[in-house]
Design goal:
Strand content: 5-15%
Largest sheet: 2 strands, parallel
Strand order of the largest sheet: 1-4
Number of strands: 4
Distance between the termini: 42 Å
Oligomer: single chain
Shape: elongated
Radius of gyration: 19 Å
Order of helices and strands: EEEHEH
Structural class: mainly alpha
Number of domains: 1
Helix content: 40-55%
Number of helices: 2
């Protein structure tokens, strides 16, 4: 099987990952475009030269992230002594 590429190649570890470092200062319009272009070029190079499969990280990732966050919040509330009861949301028409 081929490894999968997500969206960004981490130059420090050599792995593909996603995310932006929050402590990077704002660059301005032109430099931001250049940074995005550079990141996309690195991703394309990684896919072509190391034959890594690209995996689109779309809505499925955010749905899973919401589930993980909900479980974490429920666990935290229960550890604080709260009683948590899960109720499924009403279907929207």
């Amino acid at each position: 099987m081929f490894p999968r590429a997500s969206t960004v190649w981490d130059s420090n570890s050599g792995d593909l990952c996603c995310g932006v470092s929050p402590d990077v200062p704002r660059l301005g319009h032109a430099r931001a475009i250049g940074a995005i272009t550079h990141r996309l070029c690195r991703l394309i190079w990684k896919i072509l030269h190391e034959r890594v499969r690209y995996e689109e990280r779309g809505p499925a990732v955010s749905v899973e992230a919401k589930k993980v966050l909900a479980r974490k919040m429920i666990r935290e509330l229960r550890s604080l002594g709260y009683q948590v009861t899960l109720v499924s949301p009403a279907p929207t028409a």
